[in-house]
From TrEMBL:
<protein>
    <submittedName>
        <fullName>Uncharacterized protein</fullName>
    </submittedName>
</protein>
<dbReference type="GO" id="GO:0031201">
    <property type="term" value="C:SNARE complex"/>
</dbReference>
<feature type="coiled-coil region">
    <location>
        <begin position="46"/>
        <end position="77"/>
    </location>
</feature>
<dbReference type="GO" id="GO:0005484">
    <property type="term" value="F:SNAP receptor activity"/>
</dbReference>
<keyword id="KW-0813">Transport</keyword>
<keyword id="KW-0653">Protein transport</keyword>
<keyword id="KW-0256">Endoplasmic reticulum</keyword>
<dbReference type="InterPro" id="IPR019150">
    <property type="entry name" value="Vesicle_transport_protein_Use1"/>
</dbReference>
<keyword id="KW-0812">Transmembrane</keyword>
<dbReference type="Pfam" id="PF09753">
    <property type="entry name" value="Use1"/>
</dbReference>
<keyword id="KW-0931">ER-Golgi transport</keyword>
<dbReference type="GO" id="GO:0006890">
    <property type="term" value="P:retrograde vesicle-mediated transport, Golgi to endoplasmic reticulum"/>
</dbReference>
<dbReference type="GO" id="GO:0015031">
    <property type="term" value="P:protein transport"/>
</dbReference>
<keyword id="KW-0175">Coiled coil</keyword>
<feature type="transmembrane region" description="Helical">
    <location>
        <begin position="119"/>
        <end position="140"/>
    </location>
</feature>
<keyword id="KW-1133">Transmembrane helix</keyword>
<keyword id="KW-0472">Membrane</keyword>
């Protein structure tokens, strides 16, 4: 029953059924029932959820592609580095062998040169002492 029908009746004419019937009709258009709002909310939530899920799936696919590219680049760089490390290893091994030979040669030379070093030091000391003696002899004999 429309709400305008009850305007001309007296309060005695109103029945309990007529009082309760306008309220649901007035309230229902203004406030949707719980099942309607739940259905609307769940529909919006599902749409939001699906959109978010699709966006995340796209991002995950892009990240997987980028990860694969990074892994391939990384493996290429590792292969290049492996060749450089092997080349460096061979050079280090050859240098180590050469240094071992030089160490032995230097040890032998040091053993032989110890006596000549003492001889050179004694010769220098003898020359200095002789020079001082000659300077003293010249000064004493000049007078």
């Amino acid at each position: 029953m429309p709400p305008t029908d009850d305007l001309l009746t007296s309060p005695a004419d109103l029945t309990s059924a007529s009082l309760t019937s306008p309220l649901p009709t007035l309230i229902s258009p203004l406030f949707p029932t719980a099942t309607k709002s739940t259905a609307i909310a769940s529909g919006v939530f599902l749409e939001n959820s699906k959109a978010r899920h699709e966006a995340m799936s796209e991002q995950l696919a892009q990240m997987a592609v980028q990860l694969r590219k990074n892994a391939q680049n990384f493996s290429e760089k590792l292969a290049e580095d492996k060749s450089l490390v092997e080349e460096t290893q061979t050079k280090l091994d050859s240098n180590f062998g050469m240094m071992q030979k030089e160490r032995v040669r230097l040890r032998d030379h040091r053993g032989k040169s110890g006596s000549t070093t003492c001889l050179v030091i004694f010769a220098v000391v003898a020359v200095v002492v002789t020079f001082i003696f000659m300077v003293a002899l010249i000064r004493l004999t000049r007078r």
